[in-house]
Amino acid sequence: MPPSTPSPAGASIAIEGLVQRFGQNTVLDHIDIHIGAGQVLALLGPSGCGKTTLLKLLAGLNRPTEGRIAIGGTTVVDQRSFLPPEKRGLGMVFQDYALWPHMSVGRNVAFPLEVRGVAAAERAGRVAQALEMVGLGGFESRQPSSLSGGQQQRVALARAVVARPQVLLFDEPLSNLDRDLRETLCVEIGELLRSLGTTAVYVTHDHEEAFALADTVAVMRGGKVSQMAAPEALIHEPASRDVAEFLKLGALQAGVCTGRGWQLAGGLELAPPAGLFQQTPPGPGHLFIPHAALRPGAGAVLRGHVIAQRYRGGHYATTLQVGGEGHASFELAWLSDQRLPLRHPIGLDLDWSRLRWFPQAA
User: Which is nearest to 153 in space by CA: 193, 191, 197, 108?
Assistant: First the structure.
C-alpha cells in the first residue's frame, strides 16, 4: 500500500472498570486499558476470552453492565450516558468483509461519506485516494463478487479509513484468508495505520499477527487481561504460566523449587550456576524453558532425541524427548536451523538467565 497524506492523529482511549455480564455469565471482569493517541493495541486470546465483546463495547454495539469508556477524552458510555456508534468517530473492519454485493467497489467505499452528507465531488476524490492507499486504485467500477478475498478485505479497509476516523476497530479481519495473504496484508495494515496516525484496536487469536502489528498486546483469558505489554516484553518476560503457554514461547515443566534449583517431574534436577538462580520460595510450580534459552553445546545440560519436526517461519520447530537414564522423560520444544532425522540425538545447553519459575497459585 503506497503512503498517503496522513489524516489527523487518532484519539486516546480509556477503558475503566469495564464489566459485561449476560445473566449469570461474566464475560468481561473489570477491564482497565489505556491506549495513547495513534497507538495500535492488539486484543489477543482464545475463543471465548471476551476480546470480541470488548470490541463491541468500544464500537457502541452493546452497553456494558458496569464501567466507563472515553474516546479522545469524551465519555462515550458510563452508567449515565451512551453515545451511539455513528457519533464515536470510528471505522470498523470485519472478518467477513461486510461489503454490499449490489454496490460497486466505489459505492461501497463512498457509503460512510454519503451518510455524513459529503458532497459528490469531494466523495469521488476521497474514494479514489482511499482505494489508492490500499493498492486498488482504479477499481471503483468493479463489483465485489469479481474480487479475490484479499482484494475484498482491502475494499473493506478503504471503506473504514475513507471518513478519516480517529479510531479503527478490527475484528479478526484476516482469519478467512490463506497464510501467505494474511502475512502480506498484516504488514500492509501495519504500514497504513502508522502512516495515518490512527488509533487502532485489533482483535485476533494469532499471536504472530498481534506481534507484527501492535505497539502493545493485551493477552486475554477468561474475561480478564492476563498481561498487557509490548510484544518484546511478552516474549522475554511473560507474567504467568498461562501467558507463556498461550503464546507458545517454550516448554513448561511441572516441578518443585528446592532453594538451589528446580527438581522437575520424574526427578531431573536443574541447578543454575551461582548468581543465576531466580530466588523464589520453595514449593511446587512450573519451570518455563523458552525456545531462546536452548542451544546445542558440548556441556549438554539436557540430552534427548528428535521425535518430530515441522517447518515454521524460517526454522524447524523441533520436538525433543528429553530425560531418561533413571529420570522420567518429557517433551521440549526447540527451534532448529536444520532438518534433523527422527531419533537424532541432541545435547542442549541452557541460557540460565532466560529461565523463569512460576510458583503454583495458592
Answer: 108
Cα 130 from Cα 137, distance rounded (Å): 8
First-last CA distance in the chain? 51
Q: What is the pLDDT of residues 270-290, one digit of tens each?
A: 888 877 777 778 899 999 999
Q: Where are the domains of the chain?
A: 13-236, 249-359
DSSP string computed for 176-231: TS-HHHHHHHHHHHHHHHHHHT-EEEEEES-HHHHHHH-SEEEEEETTEEEEEE-H
pLDDT in tens, 305-329: 999 999 977 889 899 988 755 556 7
- The CATH architecture one would assign to domain 13-236 is 3-Layer(aba) Sandwich (3.40)
- Phi/psi for 330 (5° steps) reads -145, 165
Find all residues with CB under 8 Å of 14, minimum gap 6, and list them.
33, 34, 35, 68, 69, 70
CA 232 remoteness from chain centre: 12
